[in-house]
Amino acid sequence: MKIAIIDSCDNSYVTEPDIEREVLATKADVELYHVRNTSELPAQVLGYDGLISWHLVPLRAPFLGSLRQCRGIVRAAVGFDNIDLQAARERGIVVANVPDYGTEEVADHSLAMALNLLRRLPQGHAVVASGSWDWREVGPLPRLSQLDIGLIGFGRIGMAVAARFKAFGCRVRFYDPYVSSGVEKALGVRRCESLTGLLQGSDLVSIHAPLTEETRHLIGSRELEMLKGKYLINTARGPIIDCAALADAVSDHLLAGVALDVFEDEQAAIPMLFLQRNEVLLSPHVAFYSQAALPELRRKAAQVLLSLLEQGHHRNAIH
Ligand code: NAD
Fold first, then answer.
1. Which end of the chain has the lower number of beta carbons within 10 A, N or C?
2. d(Cα 115, Cα 121) in Å, to the nearest integer?
3. Is this model's pTM higher than 0.85 or not?
4. Whose CA is nearest to atom 15 of ligand 1?
5. Could you give the residue ranges of the DSSP H alpha helices within 101-204?
6. If pLDDT is split at 50, 70 and 90, which confidence band does 54 have?
7. Which residues sit opposite 148 in a β-bridge?
8. Nearest residue CA, atom 35 of ligand 1?
9. Residue 10 — very low, low, confident or very high, per pLDDT cuts 50/70/90?
10. Close Cβ partners of 267 (under 8 Å, ≥ 6 residues apart)
């Protein structure tokens, strides 16, 4: 069998396909390609049996339709919004993801962002760097145990984030129309039936939903208005927030703080406004990462692909 790892030239995730070759050993030949888009791939890839797909290279219908014998694609990630699932299905290709490598990391990163915003650590650092030791210059700090936290999306990461906020004594609520009734009882959190209810009742909102047609620009100017004086964190996917509306909100000092690990267009320059404001905290789509998570992700992606190719299925297959 032949397998291609399709990674991006910029911000690549895999330098050497050593882990994948170890997992697939005698079963398949593994080649690694660093490209900007699939048109840069050599023609022989169209005859490969399986693919491992990384974040920045979209797999769209024309490419998927031209694959001759591909039976499985594994998205080396949780989110699979860069793959045209319908086109893969029509070609008889099973697509799977790796949902269980970085839940703790993303949850920890969300909390790190929340604590930085709420305890105003960048502002505190700036005060000390300016030569002052005056605690009053840091600004107002809320008491964590008095806060209502709102989570959009209550899957693996949302639940892990809830557990962490609860450890700080916060009240946690979530909006997720697809989570079965009773999860709120099991985990001691509150369910909101509407996004509006969640936004209005929360001091800090953190996003943990996938990017879908339904969630694209879920947070626009109307929703941002409801977050006036509050905090917003996004470690899910950039396009869930309307970037132009967020820029307006930041420009108007509408929010108390905003932290983004993901951005609407991560290949374009970040608007200067976001870099100049000390109530804005950015990180370079790194929430998934730890020295343990990345090798685990690569190993699991190769294992899942092997199951797809040998058995035709895996429980991570996306339906
Ligand atoms: P998950 O599938 O376990 O949970 C997602 C939840 O969102 C589900 O419960 C689903 O019902 C809910 N949801 C779907 N549509 C919704 C909507 N319209 N409104 C509210 N909720 C909705 O996924 P997860 O493992 O918790 O990961 C969540 C997302 O985090 C992923 O889709 C991925 O895009 C993102 N992610 C980012 C990083 C990073 O490095 N920043 C790393 C991993 C995952």
1. C
2. 8
3. yes
4. 209
5. 103-118, 121-129, 156-167, 183-187, 195-201
6. very high
7. 171
8. 236
9. confident
10. 10, 56
User: Residue 72: CB within 6 Å of ligand 1?
Assistant: no
Is the pLDDT at 11 greater than 90, yes or no? no
Q: What is the DSSP string of 260-309?
A: ESS-S-TTSPPPHHHHH-TTEEE--S-TT--TTHHHHHHHHHHHHHHHHH
> pLDDT per residue over 240-275, tens digit each?
999 999 999 999 999 999 999 999 999 888 999 999
CB of residue 79 inside a 6 A radius of ligand 1 = yes
Residue 261 CA to residue 270 CA, distance in Å, equals 12
Residue type, 192: C
Contact at 8 Å (CB) between 210 and 235? no
Average pLDDT on 68-89 reads: 97
> Are the C-beta atoms of residues 165 and 172 closer than 8 Å to each other?
yes
CA separation for the pair 124, 256 (Å, rounded): 16
Q: Which DSSP letter does residue 269 get?
A: P
Q: Which residues pair with 190 in a beta bridge?
A: 173
Q: Write out the catalytic residue numbers.
A: 237, 266, 285
Q: Is the dihedral of CA 37, 41, 43, 49 positive or negative?
A: negative
CA 275 to chain centroid: 21
Residue 150 beta carbon below 6 angstroms from any ligand 1 atom: no
Tell me what the mean pLDDT of segment 226-230 comes to: 98
User: What residue type is assigned to position 34 of the chain?
Assistant: H
For residue 45, the CA-to-ligand 1 centroid distance in Å is 31
CA distance 279 to 143: 18
CA distance 254 to 78: 32
CA distance 101 to 288: 8
